[in-house]
Amino acid sequence: MKGNNARYAKLIIPAALLLAVVFLIIYVVSGIRSTNSGKYKYESYDYFDTITEIAIYDKLSKAEEEKMRELIDERLTYYHRIFDIYHNYDGINNAKTINDNAGNGEPIEVPEELYNLIQASQVMYNQLGGKVNIALGPVTSIWQRYREEGKRLPKVTELVHGAKNTSIFQVLADEKNKTVRLADAEMSIDLGSIAKGYAAQLIAGDLIDNGIDNALISLGGNIVAVGDKNGEYYSVGIEDPENANTPKVVLNVSNISVVTSGDYQRYYEVNGKRYCHIIDPDTLFPAEYCRSVTVVCPSSLTADALATALFNMDYESGYRLVFGMDNVEAMWIMQDGTVKYSNKFEQYLK
Amino acid sequence: MEKQKLKNDLVLIIVVIIVALAALLLINLYKRATTKDAYVVIEVDGEEFGRYPLTEDMEINVPTYNDGSNTVVIKNNAVSVSEASCPDKICVNHKEIMYNGETIICLPNRMTVTIVSGEDTLDGKTY
């Protein structure tokens, strides 16, 4: 009996030590796991009048994180400047330079990214039935003025007058010299419907060029999913126009972009009626077919332009348009809150 | 012999206490770890009313079942119900909740307040 007890007593100390070691291992392992999923987060309010959030899921050292932050800041500053229609910047010709020189006959040499965006917008104008028009500047600027004032609606005569000089075919782009010229002095371009989508795509390219494999980029809700999240899908919520706290629908995505156009982000109300910032080039008024349209497709630029175009047309026309495109799906939130999907959208539902 | 037995019992008791404390510590660590980036989810009559970050102090007035109302307070990473129209006030008297999985329920007003881990919440949002 005594011998047994002594043996137990001897065993207890190693057993306790063993237990301690096991707990230590569990603790350390759980610690490692939490640092692994601890991603690098970039956040800025400085660009495109919106919030930019970039989460990088690759493992980065402190020095690499700093390098990424500098890279993203530098690129975003550049894209913000070249697509800006409100400010001039030393040493670069941007969208405002093009507008400033409208009608004076002088072709403006522009940065490659700006040239490519303008050229792409002309191609998409034809594909999307004229429902996204970067030359709509004279009309969108009228709406913006009234929206900022927040009391009245623009007069129809005023809008029609503005619409006289909104032909995208009078935006003269010269492929060889990378120049752009607006044929008439009353013309102006407004890149609002596509610049964020394109900038998000360019940033994704910059990150990939710098060795990043997995990142989720959100430029004011224009989302580009690069790679995946530690082997899993990114879950991306589509905002409910009635309740910003709870997403209407949650998507599982990887290696794709997701863009939404809705009437609830920028708008003003006159006599209790909502007038949003997206203007239908055909009616010159904000479209009222639905509350929002979300587009999922590989190109963030296409997604941005298409979301705007679909917002400006009825669901049936939009469904047909999306049906005819490869790798493009869309989701509509209708005025009554119901949700409609394009043919194969449901593959993305979480 | 009796002395030896007593000694062994003591050792056993101490080891049991150490193991229990270690387990407690681990459970706590786990709770804390999974409560990182957590959200406070408020549901009324089975439908989600709203979702709020646990880290942001705020007061939320929740219109609940049968024209009732509850006031949910998030303060210093803890959640409590400060006011309620219900007769029993169980939700108001409930101690504040801080960790993943904890819940306050107001049965008469059909409201639940739950802390959910940030792990399964969204990575991004399109709007």
Keywords:
A: 350 residues, alpha+beta, T-fold, 3-stranded antiparallel sheet, 9 helices, 15 strands, B: 127 residues, mini-chromosome maintenance (MCM) complex, domain 2, 2 domains, 2 helices, 38% strand
Strand content of chain B: 35-45%
The residue-averaged pLDDT of chain A reads: 91
Could you tell me the radius of gyration of chain A in angstroms?
26 Å
Work out the count of structural domains of chain B. 2
- CATH H-level superfamily of the domain at 233-348 in chain A: ApbE-like domains
Brief description of this entry?
Chain A has 350 residues and is of the alpha+beta class.
Please, could you describe this protein's structure?
- The complex is a heterodimer of chains A (350) and B (127).
- Chain A is α+β, with helices and mostly antiparallel strands and 350 residues long.
- Chain A has helices at 2-37, 62-82, 95-100, 112-127, 137-149, 156-163, 195-209, 300-311, 315-323; strands spanning 40-44, 52-56, 108-109, 171-174, 179-182, 215-219, 222-226, 234-240, 243-253, 256-262, 267-270, 273-276, 290-297, 329-334, 339-341.
- In chain A, the strands form four sheets. Chain A has an eight-stranded antiparallel β-sheet. In chain A, strands 3-5-4 form a three-stranded antiparallel β-sheet.
- The model of chain A is unreliable at 32-37 (pLDDT under 50).
- In chain A, helix 2 (62-82) packs antiparallel against helix 7 and helix 7 packs antiparallel against helix 8 (300-311).
- Chain B has 127 residues and is of the alpha+beta class.
- Chain B folds into two domains: 1-35; 37-118, N-utilization substance G protein NusG, insert domain (mini-chromosome maintenance (MCM) complex, domain 2).
- Helices cover 30% and strands 38% of the residues of chain B.
- Chain B is built from two helices and eight strands; from the N terminus they run H-E-E-E-E-E-H-E-E-E.
- In chain B, 21% of the residues are buried.
- The mean pLDDT of chain B is 88.
- Strand 8 of chain A pairs parallel with strand 8 (124-126) of chain B.
